[in-house]
Amino acid sequence: MDRIYTEHQKETKLIKSSKDTVRFLLSFSKSLRVVEYQDLKFESILN
Q1: Angle CA 8–13–18, to nearest 5
Q2: Each residue's pLDDT tens digit, 1-47
Q3: What is the distance between the alpha carbons of residues 45 and 29, in angstroms, rounded to a whole number?
Q4: pLDDT of residue 7
Q5: In what helix (H) or strand (E) does residue 46 lie, and over which residues does it extend?
Q6: Is 22 inside any structural domain?
Q7: Is residue 8 part of a domain?
Q8: Integer Cα distance of 44 and 34 in angstroms
Q9: Is residue 25 part of a domain?
């Protein structure tokens, strides 16, 4: 398994994201709530 990761690591490229994108993702993750009840998961966005 370690060989898989090292082989593909050479092919990856780093990309830069804008501040707006990071701000959007952070605010979205803060507003997302997941509630588990028995075997079910409920997702809700608090906006």
Answers
A1: 145
A2: 556 666 666 677 788 889 999 999 998 888 989 999 999 999 998 86
A3: 9
A4: 64
A5: none
A6: yes
A7: no
A8: 7
A9: yes
Residue type, 24: F
Residue count (the chain): 47
* Cβ neighbours around 18 below 10 Å, total: 8
Whether residue 3 lies inside any domain: the answer is no
Task: Give Cα separations from 25 to 29, 31, 44 (angstroms).
Answer: 6, 10, 15
Domain that holds residue 32: 15-47
- The 8 Å CB, 24+ separation contacts for 14-19 are none
What count of Cα atoms within 13 Å lies in the side-chain half-sphere of residue 7?
A: 4
What's the pTM value of the predicted model, to 2 decimals? 0.49
Give, in order, the Cα–Cα distances in Å from 43 to each of 6, 35, 39, 46.
Answer: 35, 6, 13, 10
Which token pair is 13? 């490229």
